[in-house]
Design brief:
Helix 1 packs across helix 4, helix 4 runs parallel beside helix 6 and helix 5 packs across helix 12. The protein is α/β, with parallel strands linked by helices and about 425 residues long. Strand 15 and strand 16 form a beta hairpin. The protein has 3 domains: about 70 residues, 3-Layer(aba) Sandwich (Udp-n-acetylmuramoylalanyl-d-glutamate--2,6- Diaminopimelate Ligase, Chain: A, domain 1), CATH 3.40.1390; about 200 residues, Mur-like, catalytic domain (UDP-N-acetylmuramoyl-L-alanine:D-glutamate ligase); about 130 residues, Protein-Tyrosine Phosphatase, Chain A.
């Protein structure tokens, strides 16, 4: 069966599911295969749970009923199905990638553009070779714009995602030491993320550039470009207003906008959302309303009050670039009574040891009263360092950090919690209100 025919069946359903636990009446189940699972084994269960059709790549299953649709490769079919849907909708697509800040920028932009247009935005972190096609297939034909987040951990991945999504606009938030293991080097990160601009320029679409970022200067010669930043040479000049201990505030054209995002590193996320929104014709007042109504969640720059302790929880993900930015911004705004809980940074490849040591060097002579390093990667350095009179603590396992923090019973502290997603440092927050 060809993609057009499969798409016809898809239109008769309530949407795609790849997990039988999410099956609803008249859904379309796609049996994907991974290292430790094979969706074909659950295709019959999906039908029993209400799926109208199941896409499989095992012929023995497809012989049982015409509700089982056989293809050679279910993942490639999913991607082709998404691209076919993309080809028949008039929705303009804004693609966002980068080492840090892409989800926050996406959510800010969604909040703003929704004040003016009908918008679809990537839900959660569905930004890989499976998530992007699922996102594309969820775009309503009536949507004016769709904001699609593109994630990658190796060269060629952004190109592949662009060929599925065919974006009209592109933004790279920044380049950082993230996913070095897959990209091979920092230069590999730049090359891999830049595949978005390469695609957009080939399509003669528009790209958005942060002129404060020296790495992005080489694209300034491209004609269809809009720039933003703190300098007067930017198309959209956006000033940052510094208020110690307060969320990020900006000024555009004498209009002050106060966000609910903590951390100087969020300036570029706010700036990007402003630039794209202004280019698409959104008024300054609607931009202000959108930014000021956005409340960060999902462990991204969240501010949590635990009795008389104030916690900045930024534990959705971490790499050396984002870790340094978080530490410097936190100390700038909270110089006294400060504590840091920092977890391992993953997928750094050959940069793993150097990256963790860079953070330790930065923080051991900082103004933090105490520092807690959590995870086996940081723990490797525990015997090499002077404990600085009890200022630095290393915990190989998270439960050990839990027990120590709970026993200590901290009061009246400003606390930064930052680490990679798999470390799940958000669990630490509950132990700062026990005293």
């Amino acid at each position: 069966m060809n993609v057009k025919d499969i798409y016809g069946l898809f239109q008769k359903t309530e949407g795609i599911v790849t997990d039988t636990r999410l099956c609803v009446e008249n859904s379309f189940f796609i049996a994907l295969k991974g290292i430790n699972f094979d969706g074909n084994n659950f295709a019959k269960e999906a039908i029993k749970k209400g799926a109208k059709y199941a896409l499989v790549n095992r012929k023995s299953i497809s012989k049982d009923s015409d509700r089982f649709i056989y293809v050679d490769d279910t993942l490639k079919t999913l991607q082709r199905l998404a691209n076919y849907h993309r080809s028949i909708i008039k929705t303009k697509i804004i693609a966002i990638t980068g080492s840090n800040g892409k989800t926050t920028t996406k959510e800010l932009l969604n909040e703003i553009l929704s004040k003016e247009y009908k918008i679809f935005a990537t839900r959660g972190n569905l930004n890989n070779h499976i998530g992007v096609p699922l996102s594309i297939l969820n775009i309503d034909k009536e949507s004016d714009y769709a904001i699609i987040e593109l994630g990658a951990n190796h060269l060629g991945e952004i190109t592949c995602l662009c060929e599925i999504a065919e974006p009209d606009f592109g933004l790279i938030t920044n380049f950082g030491h993230a996913h070095i293991e897959g990209f091979g080097s920092f230069e590999g990160v730049i090359k891999g993320k830049s595949e978005l601009y390469d695609y957009i320029m080939g399509k003669k679409g528009r790209i958005f550039i942060n002129v404060d970022d020296s790495i992005q200067e080489k694209w300034l010669k491209y004609n269809a470009i809009s720039t933003y930043g703190k300098t007067s040479k930017a198309d959209y000049k956006i000033d940052q207003i510094n208020k110690r201990g307060k969320p990020i505030s900006i000024k555009i054209e004498n209009l002050i906008i106060e966000s609910q995002l903590f951390g100087d590193y969020n300036y570029s996320n706010v700036g990007a959302s402003v630039a794209i929104s202004k280019f698409l014709g959104v008024s300054n007042q609607k931009i202000k309303k959108g930014i000021e109504s956005y409340i960060p969640a999902n462990n991204r720059s969240q501010v949590i009050i635990k009795k008389n302790n104030t916690i900045v929880l930024d534990a959705y993900n971490a790499n050396p670039s984002s870790m340094i930015a978080s530490i410097n911004s936190f100390l700038k705004n909270n110089p006294k009574n400060s504590i840091a809980v920092l977890g391992d940074m993953l997928e750094l490849g050959r940069y793993e040891e150097e990256g963790h040591m860079e953070i330790i060097r930065l923080i051991e002579n900082s103004s933090f009263e105490e520092i807690f390093f959590v995870g086996k990667l940081f723990y490797k350095f525990s015997k090499k360092l002077n404990n600085l009179g009890g200022k630095i603590h290393f915990f190989k396992k998270k439960i050990e950090a839990h027990n120590y923090i709970e026993k200590r019973g901290f009061e009246n502290k400003n606390i930064l919690i930052k680490g990679s997603r798999k470390v799940q440092l958000e669990s630490v927050t509950s132990f700062f209100n026990s005293f």
